[in-house]
Amino acid sequence: MGEVDVFRRGGETATAPVQVFTRRASGLVRVMSPYSAFAYNILNIGVIFPWVYITPLALDPGASVWGGILICGAFASLLAVVYAGLASAMPRTGGDYVFQSRTLRPWFGFATVAMMILTFFLQWQALGGWLVSVLGVYPLLTGLGVMTGNHMLVDWGAWYLVGWGPTIVTMVSSTIAALVLIKSFRWFVQLQWIMWYGFLISYVLMVVLFLTTSNAAFIQRYNTASNFVAGGSGAYKAIFD
């Protein structure tokens, strides 16, 4: 069939061979470096999600955490391979709509993305706010209250567990995220560095504390903190009874 150049003007000779979904100038501006993209993906997979793995043990103490991880990992790897292949085939215009519309039908791509906006994005918006409130603000205030002996901070922290606390945090965090992304994606990249290095520092500190704290000291401090927050005694032993 010869060469076809979709960018040539009428009467001009074709100068480029047929290429799949490739444009000479996309108009896109590269904002994230490879290292920045690496940090984004590590943060995006949820560095705080390991708590999900141990939560089922409260409902089914005999459950196998490692078995669940292996089963879920096997199925998730299939999805990862498919997305990796699609992203490699369509690196410039890649995205869920492009993937679905090119491989299946345009109407299916539109329906898929519309469903994602209505369900997936809203779900993660709510979950993100809940995580900030329950796994961020609550333990922060509670920990400060225990360290300083201030029951008022503990009460403030408890407010972020249920009811209006997580709801307000979700609305505030979602508004901030929207304003940052509307203003400039570069703002997000700058904020990401704060989250990334904050995560690395906190992770190192946590590992150091675990390695330098004896089991007896941990039990004693856990019981003291539990007694200060909720009252009673022997909280550590009660977990295993």
Q: How would you characterize this protein structure?
A:
Helix content is about 75%, strand content about 0%. It contains eleven helices and no strands. Helix 1 packs across helix 9, helix 6 packs antiparallel against helix 7 and helix 8 crosses helix 9 (about 185-210). By secondary structure, it is an all-alpha fold. The chain has helices spanning about 35-45, 50-55, 55-60, 65-90, 95-105, 105-150, 150-160, 165-185, 185-210, 215-230, 235-240. The longest helix has about 45 residues, at about 105-150.
* Overall pLDDT: 78
Helix content class: over 70%
Strand content: under 5%
Instruction: Tell how many strands the DSSP assignment holds.
Output: 0
Low-confidence stretches: 1-10, 16-24
Largest sheet: none
Helix segment tally:
11
| Order of helix and strand elements from N to C terminus | HHHHHHHHHHH
Q: Based on CA inertia axes, which overall geometry fits?
A: globular
Distance between the termini: 77 Å
Helix/strand structural class: mainly alpha
Taking Cα atoms only, what radius of gyration do you get, to the nearest Å? 25 Å
